[in-house]
Amino acid sequence: MTITLSDSAASHVRKFIDRRGKGVGLRLAVKTSGCSGLAYALEFADDAIPDDLSFESKGVTVFVDPKSLTFLDGTELDFVREGLNEGFKFNNPNVKDKCGCGESFKV
Amino acid sequence: MALLQIAEPGFAAAPHQHRLAIGIDLGTTNSLVASVISGEARVLRDEAGRALLPSVVRYHAAGAQAVGCVAQDMQSADPHNTIVSVKRFMGRRLADIRDAARQPYRFVDTPGMVSLDTAAGVKTPIEVSAEILRALRQRAEAAVDGDLAGAVITVPAYFDDAQRQATKDAARLAGLTVLRLLNEPTAAAIAYGLDNAAQGVFAIYDLGGGTFDISILKLARGVFEVLATSGDAALGGDDFDRAIVDWLCALLGLGDLGAHDMRLVLTEARRAKEALSGKIEVRITAVLSTGRAIDVPLTRKTFANLSRELIARSLKAVRKALRDACLGAAEIDGVVLVGGATRMVAVRDAVRELFRREPLTDLDPEQVVAMGAAMQANVLAGNKAADGEWLLLDVSPLSLGLETMGGLAEKIIPRNSTIPTARAQDFTTFKDGQTALALHVVQGERELVADCRSLARLTLRGIPPMVAGVPRIRVTFQIDADGLLSVTAREQTSGVEAHIEVKPSYGISDQQIAGMLQESCGSAEADMQMRMLREAQVEARRLLDATSAALHEDGDWLLEQVERLHIEAAMHALGEVLETGGADSLKPLKASASALNHATGEFAARRMNASVQRALTGHKLDELAA
Hints:
The structure holds two protein chains of two kinds. Helices cover about 20% and strands about 40% of the residues of chain A.
């Protein structure tokens, strides 16, 4: 069971948390909605929630609830630039099918 | 995947909800359902992996029914209760069905639409179609795992109002929300136009199980324009099966086949027809109920000869559509083949020969309509198109037509026509030497002009004087992509022309709003009338009460006998109107009330004087001033 961050993602997350001034890490979750059934959620974490699993990657603590982890195991969080757009991208090996609009996925 | 940003705790954006919408090709022989899943139109299959659902419903005596392959397998065994090609009976009367005698069903001539007597009772074609749609709905719900926002159902371009309405009713019966009825060729164009990003003028040759449609469509930058449509509502793959059966009967001298044998031979004929698309020669084998065994070889060449006349019928319609579109066969940039029957080699050869080009068959001809319908459904359900924008096709929500003699509305552009569209119809003069023609453009489904909405009037002048019925006045209705209707009337021999542009409020919702407004305006007036009547009644009662009270008090000493009788007569008259008057008694009521007021004028004045006198009697002037 592991979730990792790319170098670029880790440095950006650290920068964002510093700029925000508070927060203990990053929370990743999977929500059940969207066209293909599942969608990612990416939030700052202000404190750990009991039952959460945490992973350390390149100086960033990542919190994931156990249910989401089954869909996220092995994911690498990357930070990429696409044209004018910058943002985080989930490289999730569990994904079997994505929706056409690119907001949700299926495992 | 879209790129994500980190959100504040609890504020991660929920992804948009996908509303599941399906496209249904409700065919004569086979039906399909498709949906856009993950941005891609896909035909939904049953558990056995079959895309096609045979449009066959079998009714059992217990009231149960089977749909699809299970029912189709029983065609020969139970021909009376196994309904095939029900689409042909949709919205039709018994008199409309040309070959009723050759059908194995027990028809019931019910008013409005023919019905079929089955083991489970009398069923209308709407109920039978609803069974097919229900099966497709269940398949879709299982496949997409959720509630359906709605469905787009395709109909032949030639379906009239009754047939379209019957299709809608069937969908409602099956528990489907109809987002729109879409013409089959247009659905095929959507599927091809988007998937291949094609531009140019295309002919959609749709030879289905029971209907033939030819549509000339112009595709440019994702906008579809229908240049012309034509077709034959009673020409399809089934007819080719019959041609084989007729040939067999003639060849073997079979005479009259019973319902059971007819079904059996038809099934075998279809099998042979389908096999001939891949083979040069097949054998037709069957054992009739009389014990007679049939075993006849059928070659592709013989079959081509048998189907020559049927294919010629389709080509005649193609030429007509080309003429209507003012195009030559060479100006067509591509021919799309739709419908399982276009797999026939003879059909492909004929189409290739006419257009002198290889017809397009990139997409499965049987699935293309359902796929286009699914794409349209996806957009109509409010999901954004995955691959950029494309112009949404609109339809004329109400029929557009002209007033003809006797105040009747002649529909020229039927309701649900996809726009942009153009239709023309020829009219003539009513009287000898008539030199002008007044055209009244109306919108609505009602038969009488009085019940339709008036849109515009225009006058065509300068018609050369001729005997009534001789001038040919072509009236063209054209709706452009913006919903702008232009009407042109042109006398063919002299060339005189009149033209007008109308802007009916188009979008269906606008239409509904307008309808609701009109309705509310109409009832507002009735409400106002009622209110005025009620007010007058209340006033009249008040007047009667006050008068009788005054008479009782002062009538004896202030009035002469004659005067009193006069007032009492007016009271009686008002009371009569009040008692007997109905909803339209406002005027007489007001008149009687004013007559009574008039009659009591003098009495009231005297009463006033008397009461003033009474008040003043016995008082000094000083007291009054104080």
